[in-house]
Amino acid sequence: MELKDLSLSKISELLDKKETTSREITEVFLKKIEEMDKKTNAFITVCYERAVDMADTADKRRAKGERGRFLGVPIAVKDNICTEDIKTTCASKILHNFIPPYSATVVEKLLQKGAVILGKTNMDEFAMGSSNETSYFGPVRNPWDLERIPGGSSGGSAVSVAGLESPASLGSDTGGSIRQPASLCGVVGLKPTYGRVSRFGLIAFGSSLDQIGPLTRNVRDCALLLEEIAGYDEKDSTSLPVEVPQYSSLLTGNIKGLKLGVPKEYFIEGMEEGVTKRIKEAIEVFKSLGAEIVDISLPHTDYGIAVYYLIATAEASSNLARFDGVKYGYRAEGLKDLKEMYIKTKKEGFGEEVKRRIMLGTFSLASGYYDAYYNRASKVRTLIKRDFEKAFEKVDAIICPTSPTTAFKLGEKTGDPIKMYLSDVFTINVNLAGVPAISIPCGFDEKNLPVGIQIIGDYLKEADIMNIAHAYEKAVSGFRFSPFI
Ligand code: GLN
What we know:
By secondary structure, the protein is of the alpha/beta class. The protein has helices spanning 8-16, 22-40, 48-63, 105-112, 155-162, 179-185, 219-229, 273-288, 304-319, 338-349, 352-365, 371-394, 417-421, 428-433, 462-475; strands at residues 43-46, 74-78, 116-121, 168-173, 188-191, 211-216, 259-263, 292-296, 397-401, 437-444, 450-456. It contains 15 helices and 11 strands. α7 (219-229) packs antiparallel against α15, α9 (304-319) packs across α11 (352-365) and α9 crosses α12 (371-394). The longest helix has 24 residues, at 371-394. Bound molecules: glutamine.
């Protein structure tokens, strides 16, 4: 049994045919984590014993004749998604010892189907970052080159897949945190339409932007995982009461006659040549598959980063107010009164980047500044949304790079927040508009680092973008999603 062959669909096939057991598969991955994680640091918590117990339970259920795509199938979960009785830290000191009393809806759904949780993956603290260097538990390293960052904030989730430490994982995406690390690690990552997947139990960063989504080895697995976690949830008032298509059965691979828009604003100065080249080649592949390539414009693209860093930080400053030492996690010691407890706990518990965001957000929400900053940003957000709406009147999907660069070196951008924020120029507007997008691998640059192409769809058109991604995947005979294959 080779780790590289163990995709989600392969695992359930092997289990169905009784060629292996969940326990055997789970132990293979746990062993790999033990070996790899010394180098990659992709996990904050590994569920060595619990995962084996869960696998045994799944094996028993199977022995009784029960079947199911996820019954006994292992998966990794980002550490900002609550897991009952399993530490959920958000990669922050302030939650370093937090054990949630309940599971997020997505986790609950997978557990009910008998999935096995391998562990909780490392991330940027509170999902704030693009390089996975802001984690309280240390940076994550990219298995394609251990001197380089894996992208962020779901860096651990992406690395667990690329490093063969898991068959698939869940991440969260507020401004690119699934797609950008997927791109930099050479795996598949999808951010669903806002409201497609329940946010209940996802520790909130920017509530109007956050979505949970899959990171996988191939597009079929992405479809399988999404159909399992998507759907209306009464515990999340922003989840959409619409039916979930059976995404995996809609992957025909036929994209003949589809119109794919290429936005001129997404080919900017500062973009690496290796990226431009691979994207241009990918566009040719789409052409050869019968798609029509259409030049389009998303004129408000340039405002995205500014708007995002006002709205996301405003929401974060209010969401993070609850971490004050009273109810959860870390509490400072040697305190003389309540006020000092608040101040010292936050000062000691949050890292630099999180503090920066809370201050930015608090500032833009302050009376006197609210209209000039937060309100104004909200208005421009509507213009960005309209750009997409107009584009989708003309095209079926939009294709563009996921990230302007491939994986950069550790420490390269940590001293310059603006430079770091620019890593997300191509992903952020998708969150501001609320539309879905997938990143898939499209080859390597001259340093042999993975490049990703992003396919953006109209609201709730996950099936379409996955089908386009699948057509490409077939045309290139599958992805090399790990340096170890
Ligand atoms: N890199 C972006 C940020 O730092 C996006 C993070 C995310 O999607 N969670 O906010």
